[in-house]
Each structure stands twice: as structure tokens, then as C-alpha cells.
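Thread title: Can someone regenerate the structure for this chain?

I was given the following input by a collaborator and told the matching C-alpha cells would be attached. They weren't. Posting the sequence so someone can regenerate them.
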Amino acid sequence: MWLEFFQSVVVIIALLYVPGVILLHASGMPKPWALVSAPLVSCALFFIEGEIFSALNIPIPLAVMVLVPLLIAVLVNVYVFYVAPKHKEGLNDKKPVKSKAIRAGKRSTNPVPAFICEELPFWIPLLYVAIGLLTVGLLFLPTLPSASSFVQGWDIVHHLDVTQAMIESQKYSSIHYDFYSTVEASITPWEPGTSGFYPSGWNIIVALTTQLVSTTVPIAGNALNFVSAAIIFPLSICSLIAKVLPKHRIALISGAFVCLAFFVFPWSLLIYGPIFPNTVAFCVMPSIWWIFMQMTRSKTPKHDLIWLIVIFVLGLITLFILHPSTIFSSIVVLLPWSFARIGESKRRVVLFGKQIKPVTLAYVFFIFALVIWSVFYYVLIVRGVALNFWWSAYSSLQDAILHALGMDFIGQSYAGGELVSPQPILSICVLVGAVWTFKHKQARWMVSAFMYLSILCIFIITFDVPLKGYLSGFWYTDPFRIAASCVIMAIPLAALGLATLAEAALETFASWREKIAQRQNQAQTKAQTCVFCNIWAKPLIAGAVIVCVVVLNYVVPMPNLKSEEPIPAALAFKQASEKAYGDHYILTSEELEFLRSVELTVPAGAVIANLPQDGSLWAYGTNDLHVLWRFPNGYDASERPASAILRKRLNRIASDPEVLQTAHDLNVQYVLILNNVVDYSNAVTSTYKPGTFRGITQITDTTPGFEVVLEEGSMRLYKITL
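Best answer:
Regenerated them for you:
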């Protein structure tokens, strides 16, 4: 299984980075910047392609789905580098003038102008990736019992089954989605309704990976989560810090060490829910911010601006399909930056013969943003979605403030407080970084964005008022999602604070060196000291400070609401992850092994009646078994008559002609029973009412019309013999 996992990791990296890097190369964007921005473009190409074919009601062959984005990227490069210059040469009857490479100061062979952006040495993104791989490899992977383990939470019911349905139907859409593929739509237990939107970007990437590697959906899903945390997110943070603090090299290096040090994100979202689509969307999100910042610069060349607008639009599509909430997080973050840009701008706008001050423009821009926010909330469909999810307050104001100051934000939540260990070392780093921004009058907008998101998180876990929906409805009033946005804004501040501490250590060392040099009268000794200090001492001291602070953040015991004694944050996460992914929930390893036997026994396409609460609701997503019921509840609401007949009376198939005919109509040939014992402590099965599936639970080895095909302990696979 682990071999398939790492194969999936390689495939996902290729899917998310190859088309994007090739396409961005056509813009003239420097390779490091193209690397950190590639998922924005690659994902958009896949998502757009999926929606086009779905709208045309045409199944997409796997090869077409994978190769079309790559082909588009290659064709754009061919046009930019070969077709366009020759066309221009034909019009002007002269050779195209090659531009100067701005960053390198050399002549470029690129026929288009060089892309102007901040310097980003290639070793910096590689450093972020290396530390990301090391952190995820040491912190997360060891907590997985196997490569196919998954959190048996509420959201995973949807994620696994929808992904498998995409594979079955060969339709990759966020608009036309269902637990049941097109081929077997006739067996859906619910009355058919209108298609709605659901952000299915995570499902699309996992579906493609599953087919390319010939693996299972859970393995491919874990691989995508691994790539998101270890590669995508560090590179996105790298782009943000490099853009905001282009000349602060130590802060840029420090960011590689702190980007995964906050346990609220991405770690908690890999357990809570789990909300995988939102997690991936948050990981990609920071990379679009630097695009917007670069796009709105006053001195951005026209060539760059055109490409930036295209990339930005593609990035918005990517975020929307991955999870729309990230667009609103981006609005909250980029508004303070826009205000700062307007206030610092030397441009003056004249309206009706009067010059408009920058402060006035900032207020106008704020009102405009507020109007857009209100339109989305009150008019568009978002409000209907947002109002269906309302998480009640659970904390006092005092505790909420303490948790925000401790960088754990959520405290003991309604979800049980999976990660509640405060991280005061990171709090100190964030505070120092915030002080630095005000002292040096640079990047203060980051503090504003962080403070707003932190206050919002405090507000929603403390109060239940209508304003709560307006301010946080786009995140479903969910503190976990808002806390994730807080952390993303805290990371550059923490990196800046950590760099400031390292610089303070360097200054202390420099002062000490001067005192030592004054006491030394031997010129040779002084020269040797200076050589050592200039070459080795500074990087070693700075590196030691950074590593020590980060390590202490992981290993220093802190109070935890789930343990009697203080424990390190890393250990708290390890325990929570092992519990979430462990083998003690609804679907056990023994039952999964039984499902593999069922998979080898049942003919392809045969429908299996089941008791969803015994864990078989995941059988479709994990083993591609066409179980009839794939959701734990809702069967008393809009259930189709055929579903109700089998659910309540299937055990009477030998004596009830209506039941027999219904089973034949739906192609129900087998009955699967894993375990009749329902775990009421789990959110997925807690709503189960005894007798709801009595037509399944009352089937025994002696029930007429059923033959035992497989058995192990209390687990059974029956074949309908009538």
C-alpha cells in the first residue's frame, strides 16, 4: 500500500505542477515564481475541462482529461516563443529584439519581455519543500496505521463516495455531482432533485490519481493531503513572504521552519471533519495573494499585467472549485493591503474637477468591498448555504482571548477540542514580528488582517447573534476554518519575529566580538577572528536560534484540555491523529479485509443491499462495491418508495412479491452485513434509530431467499436466490 501511496504522491506532483510551470514559462515568469504558483494554473485547467465536458454531458476518457491541460500549456509556449515572433517579424520585416533579463543582467533568449518580480533564489523554495517533507514525514505519516487509513468522520462519507462516483461516470464536475454515478442513477434512494454546486476540486484530483496509479480512493486522498501539507502550502507561504518582505532574507528562511509549526493549520483540518477540500484550498490560497499584489503595482509592465490578470482569474477559478470560502479569506487579507497601497500611492484621482485624497479613496474602496460582501451574503446562493450551517458558541470571552493569544484559537470546541495545546513560543514570535512591522513601517497591513481574523474567531466562539452569520457565514461560522486563516496570516509575522530574534543574537555576538577584539593586541588573532565571524559564525548563530526556537515549540510541554498533565504540542497532535485514523471506529481493519473478499466475489455492477451504519456506507468509496445505501440518515425525508420497501421488508423477499419485483428492478443481488452493533458515540452513526433497516438486520442464515456466500464471525455476504 505504501508503494501505491508514494506513486500517488509523484503523480499528484506531476498533475499540479507540470502544466502550470510550462504555461507560466510562456509568461516569462522566473522559474522559482512559476514553481510556487503552478497549482493555481494547473488545477484551473483541469477544473474548466471537467465542467465543459460535464455541461456537454460527455464522459471524459482519463487520457483526455490528463493530457488536454498539458497540451494547452505546450501550445501556448509554442505560440509565444515561435509563432508570435515570426508573425511580428513578418509584419515589421525585421528580427524581434531580444529583451534583457532584468534579474540576471544578461541577454535573454526569451522573445517576450522578462517578468519583473522580486528576487527569489531557487534554493529558497527547495528549502521550504525539504523542511515540509521532513515535518510531514516525521509528524503525520507515522500516525497513519496504513496508507489507506481515513478518518471515519462525517465529511469523509461524501468525499470518498463522490470521488468513486466520478471515476465510475467519468464526469469531473462540481455542479453535477452525486453519491451515485450516472450508470446507476436508478438505484439512488432519494427522489431526484436539481443539481447543486459543491466544491469538488479535491475529489477531481484524487479521482485522476486513483486511476493513473490503479490504487484506491483513500490512498490517493492521503497522498493529496500529504502533498498539500508538505509541498503546496510551504511553497505558497514562500511566495507570500518573498513578496511582502523581499529584502529580509532571514525572515524568508525562517518562514520555512515555522510554516508547519502551527498545529491549528494544516494539522487540525486533517482530523476535524475531515474537511480535506478546504484544507487543500487553504494550502493553495497564499500563492494568489502575491499575484494580486504584483498585479496592482503601479509600475507593473503591460506585458506582465496581462499575464497576471490571466493567472489571477485562473487562480480564482481554482480557489472557487477547491472551496469558495478561501476567496472570502483572501478578501479579508487583501483589503488591508489595498488600503495601504491606496494610502501610499502618489497618484491623485480627479473627480468633478476636485482632487480626491488617498484617505477618501480608501474609504470608498472599503464601502465598495462591503457592498460586494453584502450582495454575496444576502442575494446570492451563498447565503442559503451559509445559513444552513450554524455552529453555536461554546466559550467564554476570557477563554477565547486566551486561546487566541496562545495561537490555538479554537480551545475546547464542539468537536471535542482535537488540538487545544497553546503554543506560547509562536505567540512570542508573532508579537515580535508585529512590533517589527510598526517599528520599521513595513507590512503593517499583515497585523491588521491577523487581528481582524483573530477577533472574528474570538467573536464566533463566544457569541450567538445575527451579526455572527454576516461576518462568518462564508466559513459556515466554523471556528476551525477561520482559525486556519488566522494561522496563515500569523506565519509571516512569526517568521519575521523569529528572524528578529536571530538578528538580536547576531548583534549580541557582534558586540561580544568587538569587546574580544579590543582586548587582543595581536593583529593575526584579530584577523583570524574576523574571518571566522564573517564566514561561519553568523549563519551558524542565526541557524541555531531558528532551529532551537522551532524545536522548543514542538517539545515543550504545555497544558492540554484533553490530558491531566502538560504535554508537548507535537505529542498532542500525535495522539489526536492516531485516535482519528486508528482502527477502533465503525469500519475496522477486519471488516475492510472482508470487503476485499466481497469485492472479489461480487460481479461488477451488482447492487448490494446494506446497513450503512455498520460501516458499509464507505464500501463504495473504499472498494468500489455498489452498495445501495451510502449515507447514514435522511431516509425518512425524500426517500423513493423502492428504497423504503427494501429497507423495511427485504427479509420478506420469499413471501412478498412486491419486494421481489423491487429487488429485480434495482438489480439488487446481494446483501452485506458487517456488524449489527451501531456505535452511537460516532457522529456518523449517532442518528441511527433501531428498526430503520429492519429489512436488513432481520436477515439470518436461515431466512428464505438468501444464501450465505461469505462469512467471517458476525459478518455475512448473502446472495439473493430468488
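The CA atoms of residues 319 and 327 lie 7 Å apart.
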